[in-house]
Amino acid sequence: MIFHFAWRNLTTRPLRTILGLVGLSIPVLGVLGLFSLSGGLRGLVTDTLGRIQGVMVVRQGAPTPVFSDLSADLGATLEKIPGVRVAAPEVWKVAPAVEGVAAFSVGGLAKGLWSKGPSKGFFDISVVVGEDIASHRRLKNAIGPKAILPPEQGGGRYLEPGDRGRPHVIISKRTAEMHRDAAGVPKRVGDTLRIGDKPFKIVGIYETKSMILDAVILMDIETARALLGVSADTVSAYYLEMDDPSRMGQVAAAIEAAAPNVSAMRVSEFQAPYGAILDQLDTLLLMTVSLALAVGVVGIVNTMLMSTTERFVEFGVLRANGWSRADILALVTAESATLALMAGLLGSVLALAGIELANQFVGGGVRLPVTPGLFVAGLGLSTATGLLGGLYPAWQASQLVPMDAIRIGSR
Predict the structure, then answer these.
(1) Residues near 185 by Cβ (< 8 Å), separated by ≥ 6?
(2) Is the domain of 191 the same as that of 246?
(3) Co-location of 88 and 163 in the same domain
(4) Dihedral sign, Cα of residue 96, residue 97, residue 98, residue 99
(5) In-domain check, residue 267
(6) C-alpha closest to that of 330 among 341, 317, 315
(7) How many CA atoms lie within 13 A of 169 on its CB side?
(8) Dmax of the chain from CA atoms?
(9) At 184, is the secondary structure helix, strand, or coil?
(10) Same domain for 294 and 193?
(11) DSSP symbol at 98
């Protein structure tokens, strides 16, 4: 009977109920959208790093190869360690301006946001990776050569010994589409790509469908050093392949024992720094959304307070007819909980629909997850918010003395 009364009171005041639904469903929509975005980015990192087999040797404490520097002589030491088959040196740095657009400029962000094709967003910072061609050609599980587009799609070729010291680059399909010519045609094999103040000839185009891997511009290590101002006795990292992949952990420990001040990590271990960054992003975003949740609570409190104030006579009559204070408390609480549950259903449905729609347009290997857990989280969040917002109005209504309630409500 209590829920019957609660439902009747909500439906007899449709405008107020609709406003309450909108006020609480929007925060639920925002929270679920952020959870889905975070899950999509975590999935991207996991999928990307899961493709790479091997051990990356970087300077101790460096979160990624971009921030690492090691001696170029270390490679000989690494290849002498039992279990290491190949130690391939690499130079990693954030790319200078590409086609006149700097990575961290407003123009660079705008170009990435409005570029046609799959690379829409703020994740379009290019990274130059210089590879030692001779040692990389000895790798058996390198991703690059396998990712070159087929000839019918204009993929070209991978780096060869003849590219050593020459201004030849391999770019991703995403990068090609970001930097179009005056006619709007994406860059193709044979075209020139200007990096910094130097022109480079495109000899290959690849695609991994991961926005992390597709941000890389590949070239010979000597060419990269000349472009980036890196000395000949310095590299950023070494990519190692093992004779027996099952012994990666043991070999990594042997490397760290033999070479001080370095970290030998399986590529999958680089997920930890990315996870820490995403955790901080989650915290920041949730702090922002919590303000919206606070507004939702205030909206519920306001709605229920106005509802109880208008119904003093009703509460007085119910008390006079045998309803206890606990019954009144349960009635108002049931109304706020029902309103919150409806808002949760609305916000969750809108969030799931929005996520499905967004997945039709998001590229770069990001797939926003749609899970039953998100739906349950939306309902739980809204219900908890509604109950919290309805506690004070429910308590206030339950404290009314029957005759006082009738007298006050009759004014």
Answers:
(1) none
(2) yes
(3) yes
(4) negative
(5) no
(6) 315
(7) 30
(8) 98
(9) coil
(10) no
(11) B
Q: What is the mean pLDDT of the chain?
A: 80
Which of 260, 294, 321 delimits the end of a domain? 260
Q: Phi then psi for 87, rounded to 5 degrees? A: -120, 100
Low-confidence ranges of the chain (pLDDT < 70): 1, 4-5, 44-53, 102-124, 267-279, 281-282, 285, 288-289, 292-293, 296, 299-300, 304, 307, 309-312, 363-366, 400-411
Overall domain count for the chain: 2
Phi, psi at 212, each rounded to 5°: -75, -50
Q: Where are the alpha helices (DSSP H) in 232-270?
A: 248-258
- Specify if 265 maps to a domain: no
Cα distance between residue 228 and residue 265, in whole Å:
25
φ, ψ (nearest 5 deg) of residue 232 = -70, -15
C-alpha pair distances (Å), 195 with each of 32, 99, 178, 227: 40, 6, 14, 8
Query: Residue 64: its pLDDT value, please?
Result: 82
Q: Whole-structure pTM over 0.70, yes or no?
A: no
- Whether 10 and 68 share a structural domain: no
Q: Mark whether 325 and 378 lie in a shared domain.
A: yes
Q: How many other CB atoms sit within 10 Å of the CB of residue 317?
A: 15
Whether 56 is covered by a domain: the verdict is no
Shared-domain flag, residues 18 and 120: no
In whole angstroms, give the CA distance from residue 234 to residue 125.
Answer: 23
d(CA 240, CA 85): 7
The two three-digit tokens of residue 85, written as one number: 């088959």
CA within 13 Å, CB half, 13: 19
Cβ-count burial 55-72 (b if 16+ within 10 Å, e if not): bbbbeeebeebbebbbeb
Q: What tokens does 145 get? A: 């050569």
**Same domain flag for 203 and 300:** no
What is the rounded distance in angstroms from the CA atom of residue 409 to the CA atom of residue 399? 14
Domain that holds residue 376: 2-45+274-409
Q: pLDDT tens-digit profile of 262-285?
A: 988 775 555 555 556 666 766 776
List 213's β-bridge partners, or say none: none
- pLDDT tens digits, 244-268: 877 888 888 899 888 888 988 775 5
- Picking from 226, 260, 294, the residue at the C-terminal end of a domain is 260
Going by C-alpha positions, the residue among 308, 313, 375, 319 that lies closest to residue 348 is 375
